[in-house]
Design brief:
The complex is a heterodimer of chains A (342) and B (348).
Chain A lengths: L1 H11 L12 H8 L5 E4 L5 E5 L7 E8 L4 E7 L4 E7 L11 E5 L3 E6 L4 H4 L12 E3 L16 E4 L4 E2 L4 E4 L2 H15 L8 E8 L9 H8 L3 E9 L18 E5 L4 H13 L5 E5 L7 H4 L7 E9 L7 E4 H15 L7
Parallel strand pairs in A: 3-12, 3-13, 13-16, 14-15
Antiparallel strand pairs in A: 1-2, 2-12, 4-5, 4-9, 5-8, 6-7, 6-9, 7-8, 10-11, 11-17, 14-16
Helix pairs in contact in A: 1-4, 4-8
Chain B lengths: L1 H12 L8 H11 L7 E4 L5 E5 L6 E7 L4 E7 L5 E6 L11 E4 L4 E5 L8 H5 L8 E3 L5 H4 L8 E4 L4 E3 L3 E4 L2 H20 L6 E7 L8 H9 L3 E9 L19 E3 L10 H13 L4 E3 L9 H5 L6 E9 L7 E4 H17 L4
Parallel strand pairs in B: 3-12, 3-13, 13-16, 14-15
Antiparallel strand pairs in B: 1-2, 2-12, 4-5, 4-9, 6-7, 6-9, 7-8, 10-11, 11-17, 14-16
The chains are: A alpha+beta (342), B alpha+beta (348).
Chain lengths: 342, 348
């Protein structure tokens, strides 16, 4: 458990807003180099980690975990040191006021999201729209321009924190939790046990709907494609059919865009090996990178594995470590199972 | 001056919502321990800590700051392990969503609400009602949660102390640990330098300011001061786009004196005196330009035989949130005003 926790913390400590994924290439390389044959970036910011089985005629397994996180971008720099911003991905404005941010300018600049005092709000008690959100950089004038430019990306802070029962809280668990499971799985699977040449794509721009993972897949032409992403954890105000339960393992999507046999084989594999796993049914598509990968290149057999995540797209996203570990075990198992048995 | 800010950092990080300020109280006492032979002190029945430099033939001045901060109290432990809570003090619901909190026993949690993907168009526009928020401490059943918390447990925001920009500071509970830190540091300076004081001088570290039923009342009724000088934080509208008449005061332009707020019409001659002290000593100060807020002055003014009160507040952005923002210069100014005030011994 300590090993996967360490990987997860490392990933949560280096958030990258969509389009800046490769800025943390060094960290990924440091973390993963001893366990992979090749780690490289492609033209659009995907990081691909390759682990070869050494077997002749090995089939190709492609595992996707998007590496980008939602965030903000500097839109305007005001004379008094305040910034206006726009969103990158589905940012919930309700959680922004009084949140802390890091502006990734010439150097990292700290800021606080303005919470308008009640006497200035008057009767307007609604949530401010993103274009009305301001960031306080603590500069009294536009000297902030020495460090910050229009277009700089901003992460909303939400540092890694442990609560009770193995729950982890962080701003970046979507999708660093799956990323940690994938890396951990392949670190702990020996080459001789691999039935596939495995390509782990730490992929770019999922949160903005650009799903650049396609280009990595196009190049690799895999036989099996597993997309890993988070899904809504069940809460009283979330419908059952939209959610999965924490501490019951990863879910397997049954969908029209995934391979039925592959999905059911994975469920069987989990059961046979005592790995908790649940099913979520998504008739019209999975809402993950899978749906873009399903129309890429020559096609493949697809499955989606998800981790239950509480409070998605907030600074208090929360995942249970047992679930992350179960996902890692399941991925490792898949990589060790012949395609004919899936 | 760094000592003052180190102390502010320490006190800011201490746990102390109204109702359980013991950690702040202990930290203050610990801080003053080495000097305690130089002053009288006692803890009153409401938990306020009072330090006195006796000077029987001089007028009594009570300098006051409150130890408590805003927070949350557990009102229900739900079947799914989530905690419902009530506010302790006035907190704008918009600064609660998705913030981390910690209990008096060190149990960490997060205030959570529905993901944006599943909100209706109406829900996206409206600030989540506190009654629809809950604290998640990582427990999935009531039975499990009860191992970590009980009804009535208090939580505060988790927020570190960060210096940023041109001399700005971000932290929790800066309202009113700034006052506590300034008083603490002043007491030390008096002791170290054996300053001659022109008041019968009391420092009151008070309780229960944030909920309005102030412990400063009781402290003042026992001290029965002639003058009261309250060191506080005041919410300002000093942000981009705010109309000038609603800015209240500006960060970095000095401590803020008020003639009136929603709780008090201040003693004009004592307030004028405070401003004279500033002018004579070339200390930056400003006058509050909006009638809003209130503080312990209202209690102290009408306590016992009545007290002539003046306030000096540190202008604060995003007060009562996890991220209070203040400016170093203002804290230094207020400290200097206090030091000059107790040394000049002006008598009306």
């Amino acid at each position: 458990m300590e090993e996967i926790k360490k990987i997860l913390k490392t990933l949560c400590d280096c958030p990258t807003v969509s389009s800046s994924e490769t800025t943390e290439f060094k960290k990924i390389n440091e973390l993963c180099a001893p366990y992979f044959d090749l780690i490289e970036c492609d033209n659009v910011g995907n990081i691909i980690l390759t682990k070869l089985s050494g077997k002749d005629d090995a089939k190709k397994l492609y595992i996707d975990a998007h590496f980008d996180v939602i965030g903000l971008m500097v839109n305007k720099i005001h004379k008094n040191g305040f910034l206006s911003v726009c969103n990158i991905g589905g940012v919930d404005a309700r959680i922004l006021p009084s949140s802390e941010v890091t502006i990734h300018g010439k150097k990292d600049i700290y800021g606080v999201v303005v919470s308008t005092p009640p006497h200035l709000k008057g009767d307007d008690k609604s949530v401010p729209k993103i274009d009305k959100i301001l960031i306080d950089t603590g500069f009294k004038d536009d000297t902030v321009k020495d460090f910050v430019s229009i277009g700089d990306l901003i992460t909303v802070k939400g540092e890694y924190m442990e609560t009770q029962n193995g729950y982890i809280v962080s701003s970046y668990l979507d999708n660093r939790s799956c990323g940690a499971a994938c890396i951990h799985a392949l670190m702990n699977t020996e080459r001789k046990d691999l039935e596939y040449d495995v390509y782990l794509a730490i992929s770019a721009c999922e949160e903005t709907g650009k799903m650049l993972s396609r280009t990595a897949l196009f190049n690799i032409e895999p036989d099996i494609v597993i997309t890993t992403d988070v899904n809504f954890a069940r809460e009283p105000d979330i419908e059952k059919r939209h959610s999965i339960e924490c501490r019951k393992g990863p879910s397997v999507d049954i969908s029209t865009l995934t391979d039925r046999d592959l999905s059911r084989s994975i469920i069987r594999l989990a059961k046979e090996n005592g790995i908790p796993c649940q099913v979520v049914v998504e008739p019209m598509g999975t809402g993950t990178n899978n749906d873009a990968l399903a129309i890429t290149g020559k096609g493949a057999r697809y499955a989606v594995l998800s981790l239950p995540l509480k409070s998605m797209h907030t600074t208090c996203e929360s995942v249970n470590l047992e679930d992350v570990l179960s996902l890692s075990k399941l991925l490792s198992l898949i990589a060790k199972t012949k395609e004919s048995q899936l | 001056m760094n000592e003052l800010f180190d102390l502010l950092k320490k006190l800011s990080l201490e746990f102390g919502p109204t109702g359980y300020h013991k950690p702040v109280y202990n930290a203050i006492k610990e801080e003053l321990k080495d000097y305690s032979h130089k002053f009288e002190s006692y803890t009153d029945k409401a938990g306020a800590y009072i330090v006195r430099f006796a000077n029987e033939d001089k007028p009594k001045l009570m300098v006051s700051a409150h130890m408590d901060e805003v927070g949350f109290m557990v009102t229900e432990i739900c079947d799914n392990g989530r905690l419902r809570f009530g506010n302790v003090g006035g907190i704008d619901p918009i600064v609660m969503s998705s913030k981390r909190v910690i209990s008096e026993n060190g149990i960490k949690g997060a205030i959570i609400s529905k993901p944006i993907h599943l909100q209706s168009a109406e829900e996206r526009k409206a600030v989540t009602k506190p009654s629809d928020m809950y604290i998640d401490i990582g427990c999935d059943t009531k039975e499990d949660a009860e191992k970590y918390v009980m009804l009535g447990d208090l939580f505060t925001f988790i927020s570190d102390y960060t210096e940023f920009g041109d001399g700005f500071i971000k932290g929790k509970a800066l309202d009113d640990r700034i006052g506590c830190a300034i008083m603490c540091h002043t007491i030390k300076e008096i002791c170290r330098n054996d300053l001659e004081l022109n008041y019968d001088l009391y420092f009151a570290f008070t309780t229960r300011e944030e909920i309005g039923y102030s412990g400063a009342f009781l402290a003042a009724e026992q001290i029965q001061p002639e003058y009261g000088f309250i060191i506080e934080s005041t919410a300002v509208g000093d942000i981009h786009g705010a109309p000038s008449e609603k800015r209240v005061s500006t960060l970095g332009n000095g401590g803020t004196v008020s003639f009136a707020d929603r709780g008090t019409i201040y003693d004009r001659s004592f307030t004028n005196h405070i401003m004279d002290v500033c002018k004579k000593n070339e200390i930056k100060y400003q006058i509050k330009q909006y009638v809003s807020g209130g503080n312990d002055s209202s209690c102290i003014q009408k306590s016992a035989y009545g007290t002539k009160v003046a306030v000096m507040s540190c202008p604060s952005r995003y007060i009562h949130s996890a991220s209070n923002v203040v400016h170093r210069d203002d804290i230094e100014s207020i400290y200097r005003v206090l030091m000059c005030l107790i040394n000049t011994g002006y008598r009306m």
